[in-house]
């Protein structure tokens, strides 16, 4: 496939997407909470081995704004992904998602499993009720800091508030100073859709729950967790690996929410080894 940035027409709107690299196609599923699907250029290491396919959810990045707030939902994002697969003429592709991008990956796989060759879920959960054991949990040591940040940004305009919150809170989720700087640089430049973020908080957190459907997934699956993840407890990775038949669990012992930043060599070799397996 030709590398570059493109747009796809879907239901009278335009979805921005990009293709980068060579090799078997690997869809990098975006999060749905208000940022575009091209934040993590640090994953470009994978382009040495795969053709990376990314898309921007409606209302972010290269994609058009929405006309109906329901377009912010993951189910619409899943359908846009499927339209992209059809447009690209891909019979089967590999699907990967991290954090809320893992929600996208799981829901897409459950809806269109016949078109998924392999699935990778990184530092994610099968439900929107995942806060126990994280910094949002009053019993967590970082909860007072979470409260302080929340109060400090409360008076900011919506888009600035979302940016300030994520820029500060993601510092909890990496283990090295180099990774902390990368996170800060990424979110300092990111643009956020405050309406999409609000929809995620008010609707998706309550709607999303595929826990009891994980047993329906039969494609080869790799679940990666971060032992020091304070955003999504690593226990959720263990649960997903338990419920998805035949899946592999790899726990990154020195990583938080972004293992490709904390332990890049192990992270990328783990993924490559997974794809080398028949």
Can you describe this structure?
The protein is of the alpha/beta class and 278 residues long. It has one domain: Rossmann fold (3-Layer(aba) Sandwich). The chain contains nine helices and eight strands. The chain has helices at 74-88, 100-111, 143-153, 158-169, 177-189, 194-207, 234-243, 259-262, 264-276, and strands at residues 4-10, 13-21, 24-28, 50-55, 93-98, 116-122, 221-226, 248-252. Strands 1-2-4-3-5-6-7-8 form an eight-stranded mixed beta sheet, with helices on both faces. β7, α7 (234-243) and β8 (248-252) form a beta-alpha-beta unit. The two termini are 24 Å apart.
List keywords for this structure.
single chain, alpha/beta, 9 helices, eight-stranded mixed sheet, 37% helix, Rossmann fold, globular, 278 residues
Backbone shape: globular
Q: Output the helix-strand order.
A: EEEEHEHEHHHHEHEHH
Count the helices. How many? 9
CATH superfamily: Alpha/Beta hydrolase fold, catalytic domain
- CATH architecture title: 3-Layer(aba) Sandwich
CATH fold-type name? Rossmann fold
Number of strands: 8
Beta content: 15-25%
Query: In which order are the strands of the major sheet placed?
Result: 1-2-4-3-5-6-7-8
Taken together, the total number of domains comes to 1
Main beta-sheet strand count, sense and barrel state: 8 strands, mixed
CATH class: Alpha Beta
Spatial gap, N to C terminus: 24 Å
At a glance:
The protein has 278 residues and is an alpha/beta fold. It is 37% helix and 18% strand. Helix 1 crosses helix 2.
Protein topology:
Blueprint: E1 4-10, E2 13-21, E3 24-28, E4 50-55, H1 74-88, E5 93-98, H2 100-111, E6 116-122, H3 143-153, H4 158-169, H5 177-189, H6 194-207, E7 221-226, H7 234-243, E8 248-252, H8 259-262, H9 264-276
Parallel strand pairs: 3-4, 3-5, 5-6, 6-7, 7-8
Antiparallel strand pairs: 1-2, 2-4
């Amino acid at each position: 496939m030709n590398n570059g940035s493109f747009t796809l027409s879907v239901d009278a709107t335009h979805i921005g997407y990009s293709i980068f690299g060579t090799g078997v196609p690997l869809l990098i599923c975006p999060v749905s909470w208000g940022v575009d699907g091209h934040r993590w250029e640090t994953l470009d290491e994978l382009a040495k081995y795969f053709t990376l396919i990314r898309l921007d959810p409606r209302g972010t990045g290269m994609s058009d704004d929405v006309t109906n707030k329901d377009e912010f939902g993951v189910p619409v994002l899943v359908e846009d992904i499927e339209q992209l697969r059809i447009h690209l003429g891909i019979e089967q592709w590999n699907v990967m998602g991290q954090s809320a991008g893992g929600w996208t990956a799981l829901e897409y796989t459950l809806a269109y499993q016949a078109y998924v060759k392999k699935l990778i879920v990184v530092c994610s959960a099968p439900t929107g009720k995942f806060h126990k054991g994280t910094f949002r949990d009053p019993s967590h040591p970082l909860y007072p800091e979470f409260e302080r940040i929340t109060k400090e940004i409360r008076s900011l305009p919506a888009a600035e508030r979302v940016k300030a919150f994520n820029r500060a809170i993601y510092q909890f989720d990496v283990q090295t100073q180099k990774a902390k700087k990368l996170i800060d640089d990424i979110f300092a430049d990111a643009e956020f859709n405050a309406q999409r973020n609000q929809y995620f908080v008010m609707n998706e957190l309550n709607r999303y729950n595929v826990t009891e459907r994980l047993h329906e997934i039969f494609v080869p699956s790799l679940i990666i967790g971060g032992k020091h993840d304070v955003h999504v407890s690593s226990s959720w990775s263990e649960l997903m690996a338990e419920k998805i038949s035949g899946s592999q669990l790899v726990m990154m012992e020195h990583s938080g929410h972004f293992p490709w930043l904390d332990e890049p060599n192990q992270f990328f070799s783990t993924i490559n080894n997974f794809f080398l397996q028949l």
